[in-house]
Amino acid sequence: MGHLTVLYDAECPLCVHLRHWLLRQRRLVPLDLVPAGSQEAMRRFPDLDHAATLREITVVGDRGQVYRETAAWIVCLWALADHRPTAHWLATPAGWPFARATVLAAAKWRAALKGPSCGDGPCEVPGTPG
């Protein structure tokens, strides 16, 4: 695999934090991080369901592979030098439930960030002074 494009929600503090974390990691596979639903994302991937990419992380491989939800997180870890062994384990029957539970917990926290108190602007991370 030559490179991966990670589509992330640029209005989500958790997603933006994870984007910055990914950029700080040593990568074995180049990652191109593009805001989901953006003009750039739509130009690159015209056949993708862009509304769905705003609901859940989506990763697109250079040969058109599309990874969503748990598989997307695992492939992101697989691209990182220090986390590839973990990604291999998470992709096994023993590791998958742990990966899935982690993704569901992150999705729940993300949903709380986008709750009714957010109004029309970006949400704040819970517990962070505004």
Largest sheet: 4 strands, mixed
Helical content stands at: 40-55%
Q: Count the E strands.
A: 4
What's the order of the H and E elements? EHEHHEEHHH
- The order of strands across the largest sheet is 2-1-3-4
Radius of gyration (CA) equals 15 Å
**Cα-to-Cα separation, first versus last residue:** 42 Å
Q: Can you tag this structure with a few keywords?
A:
130 residues, alpha+beta, 4-stranded mixed β-sheet, 45% helix, globular
Q: Topology of this protein?
A:
Layout: E1 4-8, H1 13-24, E2 31-35, H2 39-44, H3 50-55, E3 58-61, E4 66-68, H4 69-78, H5 84-90, H6 96-113
Parallel strand pairs: 1-2
Antiparallel strand pairs: 1-3, 3-4
Explain the overall architecture.
The protein has 130 residues and is α+β, with helices and mostly antiparallel strands. Helix content is 45%, strand content 13%. It is built from 6 helices and 4 strands; from the N terminus they run E-H-E-H-H-E-E-H-H-H. Strand 1 (4-8), helix 1 and strand 2 (31-35) form a beta-alpha-beta unit.
Summarize the structure.
It contains six helices and four strands. With 130 residues, it is an alpha+beta fold. Helix 4 packs antiparallel against helix 5.
